[in-house]
Amino acid sequence: MSVTKSRIQLQLEAIKSFWNEFKRVKRGVAGLIIICIFTLLAIIGPYITPYDPLYPKITEYPAGPAPIASELAQPYLHKLLPGGDALSENMRAVSDYKISSYETFQNWSKRVTGQNIEVAYTPNEGYHNDGAIKITYTSATAQPNPTSVSLTYNFKYPFKNPPGRGGFQLHISYKVDGNFTTESTVTIELFIKRIQGSEPLPNYYWRFTTIEDGTVVYIYPIYSDTPLSVNKPLNWTHKWLRSTGLWRIAPEYTALPWEKVFPTAGDYAFEVKLTFEDKAQSAKTMTVYLDNLDILIYGQVFGIFGSDGQKGTPRDMLSNLIYGARLSVFLGLSAAAISVTIGLFVGLLSGYFGGILDEVLMRITDILMCLPGLPLILVLIAVLGRSIVTLLILLSFLSWMGFAREIRSLTLSIRERAFVEAAKAAGASGVYIVTHHILPNVISLVYLSLALSVPGVVLSEAALSWLGLYDPKVVSWGRVLSEFTNSGVASTTGFQNYWWWVILPGAMISLLTISFILLGYSLDEILNPRLRMRR
Fold this sequence. Notes:
By secondary structure, the protein is an alpha+beta fold. The chain folds into two domains: about 75-295, Jelly Rolls, CATH 2.60.120.260; about 320-530, MetI-like (MetI-like fold, Orthogonal Bundle). It has 14 helices and 13 strands. It is elongated and about 120 Å long. The two termini are about 40 Å apart.
């Protein structure tokens, strides 16, 4: 018991002595701090990133997912630069789009043209039965003219600049009830109006018409000549209307319509207009329920590091960088540990036991060292498939040969020393001598090789991912660079409009590899006797 306790004390003293020596090497401490930061990001990444790294979406609206940002939205840092305060950010026009309370309903002003229309709040209706606006129209036999009601929500657009490339999206949920025919219809029109400003707002609106017991005719976007007919049942209908989808629009507004709708800061209005018409004068009752009324406005700035340029589903760069750290740290440490372990095992066996075993192991090592690494990896990934497991196996089993030769060379020297001969004379087995006498004398080389092998793995993974051989189910820094290259953005826009998409992942790769290199050289200074004396 006392022997075990003394051994533990000796180990603790050795660790303390090593740490005191390590603290004097400033670059080693800097490298260790950087590695710890990346490791911490890898562990807590899923808890601090608000978005999925591959398929980020806004999913709370019943019409389906919406993008989280504009394509190539700028980092928030740009707002801190001179003139950056004018840049727009993401915003939602309606504070309570679910209309979940009577107070929210009161924020919508009502204007009725005609008679026999009742507008009320119903707390038990709505898509989730949590509140909706109920509009009831009862036609009269002597009232052939259309009757309309307008619901208007005023909001402020606080930014001097117009929205970003993503423009804006209007969301509406509605349900119609009543005996509709071709002679009895209700039309829903959506307007965005600018209340103040020197230039009048163009006539931007989107319209639906419900006829024939639920056959819904969508007329969008503005100035559309031919309506699109879509059959819908008489239940809740949800719809996104996207400014970026205005494929039939007046020629003078075809270029960036969101810049026409929100040209600058000011007071705006979101108006929903319902028009009821009963040409047959059949004294019918028609009811429309409205819910989930909102406008998503995508800004020029998004998040800490902006967004990438993925078409349709831009990704948060912060999430990409954090999840990329998870992959790089895991793959780098795992592949380095496996390759160093294999090299250590082969080198010890070959160096100590020699003979036929040494000849066989070294010839296998020489053959593997002569194989062209990159072409072999490309072929094997094409055959085995693109996955993290495949990449881990290939990088591990094709990078141990040089370390095995180093261990063999050192083992050949150590086995001739007096303490090894004494152990043999005392009857110690070969396995005991290797594990208790030779291994402790080569362990410093193991630590050094482990630290210096990680950068090679990280760079290899980044290079293979940049070539398109990444696992499609995960995000890596190399994949981000590959997607940037394939996007062609560099040839269509200026560097200032995409620098974060290419500079940030490249900087992360460089920073992680440099940190392990600093750690490795610091360990070499401490563990290498010749370098230690030189210091």
